[in-house]
From TrEMBL:
<dbReference type="InterPro" id="IPR022412">
    <property type="entry name" value="Quinolinate_PRibosylTrfase_N"/>
</dbReference>
<protein>
    <recommendedName>
        <fullName>Nicotinate-nucleotide pyrophosphorylase [carboxylating]</fullName>
        <ecNumber>2.4.2.19</ecNumber>
    </recommendedName>
</protein>
<dbReference type="GO" id="GO:0005737">
    <property type="term" value="C:cytoplasm"/>
</dbReference>
<keyword id="KW-0662">Pyridine nucleotide biosynthesis</keyword>
<comment type="similarity">
    <text>Belongs to the NadC/ModD family.</text>
</comment>
<dbReference type="InterPro" id="IPR004393">
    <property type="entry name" value="NadC"/>
</dbReference>
<comment type="pathway">
    <text>Cofactor biosynthesis; NAD(+) biosynthesis; nicotinate D-ribonucleotide from quinolinate: step 1/1.</text>
</comment>
<dbReference type="InterPro" id="IPR037128">
    <property type="entry name" value="Quinolinate_PRibosylTase_N_sf"/>
</dbReference>
<dbReference type="GO" id="GO:0009435">
    <property type="term" value="P:NAD+ biosynthetic process"/>
</dbReference>
<feature type="domain" description="Quinolinate phosphoribosyl transferase N-terminal">
    <location>
        <begin position="29"/>
        <end position="119"/>
    </location>
</feature>
<dbReference type="InterPro" id="IPR036068">
    <property type="entry name" value="Nicotinate_pribotase-like_C"/>
</dbReference>
<feature type="domain" description="Quinolinate phosphoribosyl transferase C-terminal">
    <location>
        <begin position="121"/>
        <end position="291"/>
    </location>
</feature>
<dbReference type="Pfam" id="PF01729">
    <property type="entry name" value="QRPTase_C"/>
</dbReference>
<dbReference type="Pfam" id="PF02749">
    <property type="entry name" value="QRPTase_N"/>
</dbReference>
<dbReference type="InterPro" id="IPR002638">
    <property type="entry name" value="Quinolinate_PRibosylTrfase_C"/>
</dbReference>
<keyword id="KW-0328">Glycosyltransferase</keyword>
<keyword id="KW-0808">Transferase</keyword>
Amino acid sequence: MVPGLDHAWVVDVVRRTLSEDLGGDPGRDVTSQATIAVSSGAVAHLVARQAGVVAGLVVVHEVVAQVSARFGLGQVTVELDVQDGTRVEAGRRLAVLTGPVQVLLMAERSLLNLASRASGVATATRAWADRLDGTGATVLDTRKTTPGLRALEKYAVRAGGGTNKRMGLYDVAMVKDNHVVAAGSVTAAVAAVRAAFPDVLVQVEADTLDQALEAVAAGATFLLLDNMPTDVLAATVAAVRAGEATTGRIELEATGNLTLDRAAEVARTGVDYMSVGGLTHSAPILDLALDLVAR
């Protein structure tokens, strides 16, 4: 079971998505409302046109329910054939929707946009999770997400077998190069965060071995090893690990310039994680369709 989405967030994002498509609340669908009788009902199949990992099916019921409520039309029943996180082949039926045709067609693009986007992220994540299986390393996402859809895309990462890093700027402190410049040093930046927000985890980005060791000396317990060539990354991991008898366990993440082809090579350096912005900022959608079928 994939850890779920906050219901209030789903309600809000579906409301905004529908208003964008319908031109307001309630809005209108000038084609469907002109050509289809209110009393007309149908069955529709949600199907995958491509092989991949599905995610976002949890929003389908909310989309059709909100359309029904906006226009005072009958409810659509949704029967899921698969759960989020399932691998599917092209042509696989994912769900059966039964109800007023107007509702089905007014909801169609919104539910497909959300589910296709999430499924694309889940599919991209699964490729990384499969490549890292057995290596001891885990793939992480980043904050490079579609504005307004972060919760859905990070949910999709979980559905694809990945792990969420921080959700935003509020839950974990991440000292990066610009913070170091502003504070004067890695040590000063870590100390400033600790003083201001003693309750949060502090992560530090390091571009060199010296920066990594300075961060550990300053008390950081999680390092982002950024854009390091494999030999430098391996040496940095070894140096940090050598001091763990004194410092305690340090979590190490490789980030920047990561590809599936390099995944096993990077994992062999001994890092715990690899963060991949492309899981969310570059994943193509998984092509899904909603097709009316004869009763």
